[in-house]
Hints:
The complex is a heterodimer. Chain A is mostly helical. Chain A has one domain (3-81). Chain A is built from four helices and no strands. Chain A has helices at residues 3-12, 15-22, 27-52, 58-81. In chain A, helix 2 packs antiparallel against helix 3 (27-52) and helix 3 (27-52) runs antiparallel to helix 4. The longest helix of chain A is centred in the middle third of the chain and has 26 residues, at 27-52. Chain B is mainly alpha-helical. Chain B is built from four helices and no strands. Chain B is elongated. Chain B starts with a helix and ends in a 16-residue tail after the last helix. Chains A and B meet through helix 1, helix 2, helix 3 and helix 4 of A and helix 1, helix 2, helix 3 and helix 4 of B.
Amino acid sequence: MNEWIVAALALLAGLVPCGAVCLRGSPVDRLVGLELAGTVDTLVLLLLAQAYDRAIYFDLALALALLSFAGGLVFARFLERWI
Amino acid sequence: MSPRELAVAALLVLGVAVTLFSCLGVLVMRDAYDRLHYTTPAAVVAPVAIAAAVVLEERLSAAGIKAVLVAIVLALTNPVLGHATARAARIRQFGEWTIREEEREGGGRR
């Protein structure tokens, strides 16, 4: 247990409000919850990569940051008209 | 505790606290437009603080550079995503996303 793992575990608690937002309200409200959850997950991966001290694990955080961005754009596009 | 370790711990606490308060803000706000504001600190302040902590710990090694890259990506993509989401919300609400006639005078919300 170093300080990085403690920080990652503390950040995981932030996913609970995000999940609560995803479970109620209008579809756009839920999309906002999903976007914030993607950001929090990216930060958790960043902290875990440093906790395990492997430079290659930082690529996971980078990939998640880019993919959650693309996913959010696709959801926003579909929510405009069709869903 | 050396000053460097102290700075790392302070930056981590800052990043985690900002993210947790953002999550709480998203939870308690009333509608999507209000909620969207609270995604910004989690995507700008927190990654910069955590990346700074990683750079302090690792110097500018491969890990440090990638952490900075993640922070830059998050900070750059969040405004685009926020705009797209708010646009989608307005189109669902009004059928269009540009400024509407009754919004030109008075400057009320939405």
